[in-house]
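Q: Convert this sequence to structure tokens.
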Amino acid sequence: MLYDREFKRWVFSEDSVISSEERENLIYDYNEFRKEMLHTDIRDINHELYGAPRRPENESTAAKIRNVAVTVLVLGALVCCVLALLMHNIFLFGIFFCSFFFMAGAILAFTGQTNAKDTPTRKERGRVTGVFIMLGSGAILSLILLHDRFSQGELIVWIASAAFGLSGLCLVCLSIIDKLSAKIFYKEEIDAKCIGYVRMVDTESDNEGPPMTVMYISPVFEYSYEGQRIEALYDVMEIGSSSDIGLGSYTTIRINPDHPEDVMSPRVTKTSNFIALLIFGLIFVVIGSGLAWYSLLGNAKDLTVETSWNQIISEGETETTPSKKVVYDEFIEENYASDIAGKEWYREETTVSNVEDYQGNMLLTFDDTFEKMLIKPSDSVKKGCRIVIFYTVSREKEEQKKAYKQPFVYTLPDEVEYTGDRGAYKP
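A:
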């Protein structure tokens, strides 16, 4: 990547090796820099962190719209995650989350840019990642939209299979791209002079512990290509504070002839990096394939998963006893207003006399005056079990003389506690 002398986070030096005291001073300066960022205008964050050009006052309308769209997508996805957890509505907010994720992946696939200083070569990895984000979010969105065709256990297994499988394929593709970088991107060798060293302190997190402060280094190479003088760093800076390339010495580097400022880093093609990515990718692919095979054999149908589609069970307020959820009259009238349609409604416990399969759902029959009720597949509802039904009453049709109670939702006696005063209908 091009060496930017104005970028403050890159500390230039002519010393290939620095003392521990100098290293600590660089880390101290970085921590002070982080404190300064708390008071930096958010519009200048990309400039200060990544060296991106400052946003011009006469920025085009299209660029402004793009920046706003990215911000809205990121915030929208985060909000959907929170709402899905708080409201227990995976279907609705899952659709929005996948849609936002798909659009974010499309932007990444189009631009390839995850960092304002990404080189054209590095952006190819971003584009590949963006494509797999689109595939993953599209696959999960399709499963959510077609949830009626699966039992709840199957749906969760298929979603996990898609997530693991596509993540693994993405890692495998990235490992191959890194390993073959010299043939794919950095096709030309050139002699370059080392005129100094750039060090940068940054923070990394492995998601298993607190963030770690890491130092990176790259020689500053000076060379000419097709009459153009170039000062450049490795596209991917190496971890460490010392360099084994001497000041003023000439060394052979590999560059991208389409973008001669892109210099291949030894870190990218290290066998250890390739093997680590490949192994993790293959493990994820095996897990995803195993889950898919497990579901195809029909084993996932027997999994017991608490329903996320029945509003009463998933959205009722939690009582102090964690095994039950509280449902009250206002909750019923608010969430089932269209089913009640202004009629009087009632509550009654009854026995399931028969269970039939109807297009992947369950059709329940009762011994008394209830109409049949169609529900999502549930391992908790079986022939002979007791359930609580909320219903309205209608005798408008001839066939309703014996079955005139019209259920609109059910609960299980041992899972939900009703605190209202509605009882059974008395003719």
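Residues 152-179 form the longest helix (28 residues).
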